[in-house]
Amino acid sequence: MRTAPDWDVDALIDDPATRVIVCCGSGGVGKTTTSAALAIRAAERGRRTVVLTIDPAKRLAQALGLQALTNEPGLVADADGDLHAMMLDMRRTFDEMVETHAEPGRAETIIANPFYQTISSSFSGTQEYMAMEKLGQLAATGEWDLIVVDTPPSRSALDFLDAPQRMSTFLDGRMIRLLSAPARAGGRGLMKIVGAGFSLFAKAVSTILGGQLLADASAFVQAFDTMFGGFRERAEATYALLRSPGTAFVVVAAPEPDALREAAYFVERLTAESMPLAGLVLNRTHPARADLSAARARDVADGLRGAPLATAVLRLHADRVDLAEREERLLARFAHAHPGVAVARVPVVAAEISDLDGLREVGARLAAAATPPPAPTSLRTAQ
C-alpha cells in the first residue's frame, strides 16, 4: 500500500520566503478552520500575519471569536502574536479600486453609474477578480510577513486563477469595443467610420436590453476605458505572485471518498497551472492503536461474559480500527494517483472549534502531523 510523505507544516509557516498561503478545498472539510489555525500559529511564532477569507459564510469571524470582519485587516486582540483578519467585500474593493485608479473627477461618475453598480456586485467573475485585487493590494503594501487566503468552499475556489484571462476576454470583447467606440473615435473623421457600425449595434442591443441600460453601459465603458489596461496589469501581477516560489497552496480534505475526489481535482488543476502546491491537510482522521486488531478485539468481546463495559470498549476499539484502516485505504488510493503530495493528518478534536484555544489545538495537531499522532481520547462529529 502506497503511503503519502509526511508534511512539516511548521517548516512552511516559519520559512521567511513563504509570503502567501492559499487554502482551498470542498465544503465541510474544515478549510476555514485550517486557514485560521495556520494564521494564528504563524502569528504566535513571530510572523506578522493577516488572514483573508473570500468565503461569505462569515465562519472565519466565528472561529476567531469575533463579531464581524470588514474589508480591511482588523487586529485579533486576544491572539498572542501579530494577527489580523478580514473578509472580502467585493463591492467595496471594486469601489476602492475605481477611487484609486480612475482619472481625476471620474471616480464618482463611474461609481454612480447603474451599469457599474450591477456588474460590481453580480457580474460573473467579479468576486474572483476582486479577490485577486485584494490579495495584490495586501502583498503590495509589504506590511505582512504572511498572507493566508481562505477560498470559497467549492470548485469555484480556483476560479480566481482564471480571473486575469476572463477579465481580459471581457474587456477585449466585441460588445465592450463597440460600447467604447464613440469615446475612442476621438475626432469627427474617425467618428464617421465607427458611427454607422455603432448605430446598428446600439439599435439591436437597445431592442433587447432597453435603451436606458444600453446608455448606462455605454457611459460606464467610456468613463472606465482608461482603467482597462491597469486592470490587466494588476491581475497579471497577482497571477504571477500566485505562481511565485513565495506562495504555497494547501489543499484541505476530509478522509471521505467525495472530499478526496475534490482534493484530487484541486491537485490536478494546480499542477496544470504550475502553481506551487505545498501539501494536503487531511482533517478529522481517526488514528487507532495497531497493537490489537479489529478481528481480535471482536473475538475477545464475544468471549466475555458478565463484563459489559469491557465488551463495549473492545467493540468500540474494533470499530475505530476499521475506520482508521478505511481512511488509510482512501489515502493510499489518493497517494497512488498523486505520488509526492505531502500530507498532514489532523486527528479529530474533542470539542467544537469556536475560539482561539480551539484553533491553537488544531494548529498544534497540524504541526505534529510530521510524526505519527497519538490516538485521540474522544470523538466528535464536526470540526
TrEMBL record:
Coiled coil ranges = none
- Could you list the residue ranges that cross the membrane? none
**Signal sequence, renumbered to the chain:** none
Q: Which residues form the ArsA/GET3 Anion-transporting ATPase-like domain?
A: 18-290
GO MF terms held by the record: ATP binding; ATP hydrolysis activity
Tell me the protein's name: Anion transporter
State the organism named in the record. Answer: Pseudonocardia hydrocarbonoxydans
